[in-house]
Amino acid sequence: MDYISTRGKVGAIGFIDAVMMGLADDGGLLVPKHIPQVSADTLKQWQQLSYQELALEVFSLYIDGEIPREDLKQLVDDSYGTFRDAEVTPVRSINNHLHILELFHGPTFAFKDVALQFLGNLYSYISRKNNSIIHILGATSGDTGASAIEGVRGKEGIRICILHPHQKVSKVQELQMTTVDDANVLNLSVEGNFDDCQRIIKELFADVEFKHRYHLRAINSINIARILAQTVYYFYAYFQLANQGQAGKVNFSVPTGNFGDIFAGYLAKRMGLPIHKLILATNENNILERFVREGVYQPGEFHSTYSPSMDIQVASNFERYLYYLHGEDAQAISAIMDQYKVDGNIVIPADKLATVQADFVAYGVQGEECLRTISKYYDSNAYLLDPHTACGVAAAEQFTSEDEVTVALSTAHPAKFDEAIRLVNIEQTPPPQIEALFDKPQFQTLVGGSNSEIVEQLVKFY
Ligand SMILES: Cc1ncc(COP(=O)(O)O)c(C=O)c1O
Ligand SMILES: N[C@@H](CCOP(=O)(O)O)C(=O)O
Fold first, then answer.
1. For the chain, what is the domain count?
2. Which of 68, 157, 402, 424 has its CA 20 to 30 A from that of 294?
3. Nearest CA, atom 13, ligand 1
């Protein structure tokens, strides 16, 4: 399988090179040259597979023999052996129309573990096999950082530096990252918001000489491996419903920030999974909702919300979608992204907007509605939603017709966001792993938001 850049200036490279490159060297994002197609017969065969078996099949399509199957199987088994639920990503039925896909049974209680347990092990594998130096640089609004650190802490040959926005992540998220005392981990708490952190790391990755000199590798969803791993649970959830006799139209509702998780759903659909609607849910940071409704992509004012991990204006994976929206025309994307730097917005014509609106429906959830949704499902079903999941569930309510069911992706455990849960007067007992964090010392360095300050820290660390 070959990978190419959305901007057309990185030629066909293999899977491992794509993982190691992270952000494409021309500033674009890597995508598979051809999206593998899964036939109806294959879907039928896959329906009975365990999560691990299914992941092995999906990864094999994209890795295409570059990693021997036995090794890949071991990577998959190691990655999902750390999950607390035997099904890895189980589906819970709430009512006849709503099912919750629980993606938070990994070590850090967020959906990021599904991809980052795998990517951590993959980096370790590549480092051992190819003697490669792995210096991970990532930005987080709270969950990716904790999960990536957990995936590689203490691993030989790997160092990881994570930038998080100072005091803009939940207490549990902060503790999960900063109580790790392994010498290969550096946490930088940056004055600014997540978009600032993400902009800094992208600028450093775009400086190809710097990136190569310091062997910088990505763990954010700019890395194509993240997206591929996240497609697996769309298939798995669909099969779980099919196995329960659920025929008919199946939607997925996805709380969205960086457009990574919902892009994985889009990819699964393009591979042949018969997803009906892809419902895009945002919080007040609703750039993507506005794009789907109006065809204008324009960062707006930053809001701190009850769902802080989705407090994102500049959505990394949007460029991957634009690439498919423009018929895989890398020249067009290169021109659009150059013009975006000048204009600060992207406006698509009416025919393309019609395609967008066929691909997605979107709903922006305000804070009060998010909290109301948490209370509602707690009272009616004794089910506690985290605030990100609540956005997805509120959006599912808007778009699920009588003849449809919606799978709402539950992207985090509510114990990670107790600040919001307390506002609706719900007392939760945190899992012991989370409770234990409060007794541990923290390790982090507070830095200003300038690139030079970050570079100074990185050069010392790597
Ligand atoms: C808990 C949670 N939900 C939803 C999202 C949104 O996912 P994505 O950025 O892939 O759109 C994130 C992170 O971005 C998250 O941490
Ligand atoms: N919500 C994310 C933001 C980074 O997104 P990613 O999917 O590109 O890693 C987080 O929790 O850090």
1. 1
2. 402
3. 309
